[in-house]
Structure of EutP/PduV family microcompartment system protein:
Amino acid sequence: MVIGSVGAGKSSLIRALLNDDREVAKTQSLLFRDWLIDTPGEYCENPLQYRYLIATSFDTKLLVLVQDATKERGYFPPGFAGGFPVPAIGVITKIDHPSANPAKAERLLRQAMPKGECFAVSSWEGTGIEELRSRIDHLLQSDGRR
């Protein structure tokens, strides 16, 4: 399940992970695509919506927390990943953008997810996508859910 703020690059990331050439559109509700779940950014930005993320996570193997490398702030509260029954990995998106600050993005992610791997990617250039896909594939196959 992919979680992040509005505009963080979740849908573009999913598009890259699935080698999908469809245009990216604003996610309005939970979208189940192949082996991934795309979540609306509003679910991350509004604590009243967290219950939908938590409920959905019971049907998943892994959380993918997405932080936009161009943003000055994070949208996940401290310890956010610890409220879910599955492990989390972090993904820093938009590393190809001129104003990207991947180090700051990782610090913001680490507040929400103190443990777990972080991957820096560019969904448009493909940087880091194969490594991330491989790691997700390994984690999903270890549970037989793919």
Q: What stands out?
A: The domain at 2-141 is CATH 3.40.50.300 (Rossmann fold). The first strand starts at residue 2 and ends at 4. The chain is about 30% helix and 15% strand.
